[in-house]
Fold this protein.
Amino acid sequence: MNEQSKNTDDFDRLLMTVIEDELSDDQRRKLFARLQADPDLRDRYVDLMMLHNEMEWERASVTATDQQQPLQPADEAPGQRRRSLWKPALSLGVAIIAATIIFVVVHHVFLLHPPEPQVVQRPSPQVNRNANAPALRPHIATLSASMDARWGDRGVILDYSELNSGKLLLTEGSAEIMMMSGVRVIIEAPCDLELIDSNSVRLVGGALVARVPDRARGFFVETPTGRITDFGTEFGVNVNGKTDVAVFEGEIELAADGQRLFAGQAVRVDKDKQVSRQSSAELEKKLLRPKGMDKKLAGQNTAAYERWRAYSAELAKDPDLLAYYTFDNSGDENSPLLREARGRTGFDGQVKGPIWTRGRFPGKGALEFGGPKSRNHVELCRAASKEMNFTGSYSIAIWFKVHSFNSLYPTLMYKGDLGWRFVRFREKLVFATNSGFSSPAVPRENALVQTNSSIDKRRWHLLVAVAERNPDDATTTARLYFNGRQQGGVQTWNHLNNTPAPVWIGGNPKHADRDYHGMIDEIAVFTRALDADDVWRMYEAGKSDGAEE
């Protein structure tokens, strides 16, 4: 055994004495010295303390009625049981267990026997002191789909790329742009377009069609002949020396003469801003509307979509599938998130703010969430939330695509501060559960498992958390899978609380700054622990063609 391994083993044994509340004064001094001398341990301490202290403070605010005391094994001493739990886990060398133990060290040792303040210093936040650094332009739209598109000097822009304010020159093909306001803009080459902000564009030349949800009423298009302001729902514009405008649904207002146009009407505005009536049907033939774009896209990647549909149909028959949301029922902004599987009613989700958009296959739906303080979320009904107070094994799978992680703890899915949650913390995706109970034998405990892979914002990813309950000793093994492969695991005494907190998708009801920024495409919740083969089949069946393994 080399010296480094021996030191690691010694440190693990020192941590175990803390777990078992047997730390002597001499051992405590050694532990402080190790933390003071090892920057890696201090970094891990800071990371875990930020997450766990935040959990502790939130949990302390919850009333005692939301807590549930665990059942102890009848004929075995709790102290003996805890030793049999932790020693095998540490022998596996699982990094997350060491990190979790560090938290317990700090919780027991630092609070009960506080060291001198200078022992562990929290690093100062990094501050950009370059006053001349250019301001970052905000992400205001997403390229949600394209067909044979080329973009001037930029060449190819990948689908699902974030778009900032500025010019876009489409020289070939067609494209769909989803504005952050929810407006769906379809353009065909040649098209010279400028994105102004999340609810306005400037059309210098070429054609576009905009479909505007109620929430984005007031969306406008600047043209060389004046502004066109929408009052819902769909209209088209063609700029070619003159400006042709047609209303397919709803109404718009022309700045050229202040008149309003309604469904079925069309006009031409010349360079002198003179307005003349045109045939709406003739103009419609020249424009690519959203339903036409959908039809064209439906011919792409059909094999992958059909592969997923076949898998999805079989999955919906699984007797252990508690809730299944395929996101394949995309519709208008008020469409609910429909539950499939086992015919259970009352499990639908109420969509509050996210916009329906294109999913990971042409023809498939997804929801797009607006990010911090948008309050975009889906709230599952009370019946669904109640049944997700798990008492045995369970698994949760979620397909997602990130636009940005620009806040602390952005939340993919959440079941209360005393339940479980998917969050992103310090470049890692984390599945955390909270026990919320405390006794002399079994302290209050958090199970925390995280990924090691980086997140590619250009691609869809599958995240699966598995909690497997051992009925013999009441322990739980938590595993986390990312894109079909296991990334982390931890064994714990964790018991979930019976909490009335609702299940939120894409947000945290207590913290608006934790709203998720990106898309979610599919969620499956099981009342059993999926195995590695189950997870791999789910990934293989559901990934888009070309997705990285």
